[in-house]
Specification:
Layout: H1 2-24, H2 27-30, H3 32-61, H4 63-69, H5 75-80, H6 89-130, E1 143-146, E2 153-156, E3 162-166, H7 167-172, H8 176-191, H9 193-206, H10 211-236, H11 238-249, H12 264-273, H13 281-293, H14 296-310
Parallel strand pairs: 1-3
Antiparallel strand pairs: 2-3
Length: 311
């Protein structure tokens, strides 16, 4: 079927071309929230191509499936999709393969959620040991002050979310810099960045040979930090946020030659100190609309034969 070939080609082109175009573009660093949306649309389009290909392959191979999928469709639509004719020998194999891929994707997502919950329980138990609740302290407090020699702060999501900050960070950061650090972590919580990281990790681990999913995970880790930086800078200023980043990370060896861990921190500081070059409202609106249309394209490709038949 030509529709299946078109869907496979569209999914493959999206998986190969879109990450390369996004990697070469400079606007994702300026507009990380929009870039997060575009990346989600790209991955959604690839997955949607797979789902539609599986559905049409199964309908072409088994009349029981076709009866459910095309039950309300007129005869002209069935003929347009070649339903009822002799199926291609690879249609059933394609449907089974894609169905197994869908089951595997769900299994990887479930495994990621289970592992994440286990890690959170372990970290909460460690927090309870290192920072026990004091007499008179409010139960279920969202802020946990942890004794530590290295300045740090992180958000621990879950049913009872916690903002953890070390005593070294409280000593080193003062005033608006500390507020900017807290706003950065709150930005992660408000945007639910943890779910983006879980989904991207599940796809990358489940399909390590698919480059688009590996790039998706890497970009999610980078872009969520940029987005949280912007949330903090809008409230407390770009310079204040940059100084807070420097104060928190200067003892970790991420600045200067030979910096390996957290090597993106200098780029984040440089980005905050560089005057923003924002898109105009018209260009931003146009790019957002184009990104929103990306997952719709596979649907249009799949339904064009039926629409032509009805016409």
């Amino acid at each position: 079927m030509m529709v299946l070939a078109a869907l496979f080609l569209l999914g493959a082109l999206t998986a190969v071309v879109a990450p390369r175009l996004l990697a070469r573009a400079g606007w994702p660093d300026r507009e990380p929230v929009l870039a997060l949306w575009v990346w989600q649309c790209v991955v959604a389009a690839v997955l949607l191509c797979c789902v539609l290909s599986m559905t049409l392959s199964a309908a072409a191979s088994w009349q029981a499936v076709a009866g459910h999928v095309f039950a309300p469709a007129p005869q002209a639509v069935l003929e347009a999709y070649a339903i009822g004719r002799t199926a291609s020998p690879w249609a059933a194999a394609t449907a089974v393969t894609l169905a197994c891929g869908g089951v595997w994707t769900g299994a990887m997502l479930v495994r990621e959620v289970v592992r994440t919950r286990a890690r959170r329980r372990l970290r909460r138990a460690e927090l309870l040991v290192r920072a026990p609740q004091l007499p008179g302290e409010e139960s279920g407090s969202r802020l946990v002050v942890l004794e530590g020699e290295r300045p740090d702060a992180w958000w621990l999501p879950g049913t009872a979310p916690r903002l953890v900050i070390t005593t070294a960070a409280l000593r080193r950061l003062k005033g608006r810099q500390l507020d900017a650090l807290v706003a950065h972590e709150e930005g992660h919580a408000q945007a639910r960045h943890d779910w983006l990281l879980h989904c991207s990790a599940a796809l990358a681990v489940g399909f390590p040979q698919v480059p688009v999913f590996a790039a998706f995970r890497a970009e999610m880790h980078r872009l969520v930090e940029l987005a949280a930086d912007d949330m903090a800078s809008r409230r407390f200023g770009r310079l204040t946020t940059a100084l807070a980043l420097v104060e928190v990370n200067e003892d970790r060896g991420v600045f200067g030659p030979g910096a390996a861990p957290l090597a993106d921190v200098p780029q984040r500081v440089h980005r905050l100190l560089t005057p923003p070059d924002r898109f105009t409202a018209a260009r931003r609106l146009g790019l957002t609309a184009a990104a929103a249309m990306v997952p719709v394209v596979p649907v249009l490709v799949a339904f064009i034969p039926g629409l032509r038949a009805l016409g």
